[in-house]
Write a structure and sequence with these properties.
Length: about 180
């Protein structure tokens, strides 16, 4: 059992929805004319974000998922990224949008984009709902970011602490009491 904590709201569901609307318009412009965009969600934290994002995207899309591990159940990145579940489909010659929940140290996004780039997509872009730039250890930035946040441990909107709180409709920060 983890120590008792409360969750303080940081980004409301309404603010997230408004940001996704704006980002979707930019993504649609970037990929205008695509015959097929493969939207790749990184499990499990991006599952809510990707669901809302693709419903705002006015493009022909396919959805696929990839699972990478770096955190385990704790609050610290292990810095060693393993692929636990690979994509079902091929991405060679395809337009790809990688969807991540949070870019923290940057190890996960760096590893995943390197691996996918080696498969020869026509174009690959990345989007992260949240970015914690002060925590970065690998020089990488998503092409689109929902919100930059300070060095706080957050949950909700798909994001967990020890697998809990993914179902909160907003982003909140964990505060131990
Ligand atoms: P990175 O490899 O250090 O950039 O970590 C990326 C992954 O760590 C994210 O996809 C999240 O799953 C997890 N992570 C980073 N920060 C948080 C947080 O504040 N709450 C929950 N998970 C986090
Ligand atoms: Mg993750």
């Amino acid at each position: 059992m983890s120590a008792p904590y409360v969750i303080d709201q940081m980004i409301s569901a309404k603010a997230i929805a408004a940001r996704i609307e704006a980002l979707s318009a930019e993504i649609a412009r970037e990929f205008e004319g695509t015959s097929k965009l493969v939207v790749v969600g990184l499990l499990r934290g991006s599952f809510v974000f990707i669901a809302d994002l693709v419903r705002e995207l006015d493009l022909p899309v396919e959805v696929d998922f990839l699972e990478a591990s770096s955190y385990g159940d704790g609050m610290e990145s292990s810095r060693e990224v393993r692929i636990l579940k690979d994509l079902r489909g091929a991405i060679e010659g395809r337009d790809v949008l990688v969807v991540e929940d949070i870019v923290d140290t940057g190890f996960t996004l760096h590893h995943v984009t390197g691996m996918l780039a080696s498969r020869g997509p026509a174009r690959m872009k990345t989007i992260a709902l949240l970015d914690k730039p002060s925590r970065r250890e690998v020089d990488i930035k998503a092409d689109w970011t929902g919100f930059e946040i300070p060095d706080e441990f957050v949950v909700g909107y798909g994001i967990d602490y020890a697998q809990r709180n993914r179902n909160l409709p907003y982003i909140g920060k964990v505060r131990f009491v």
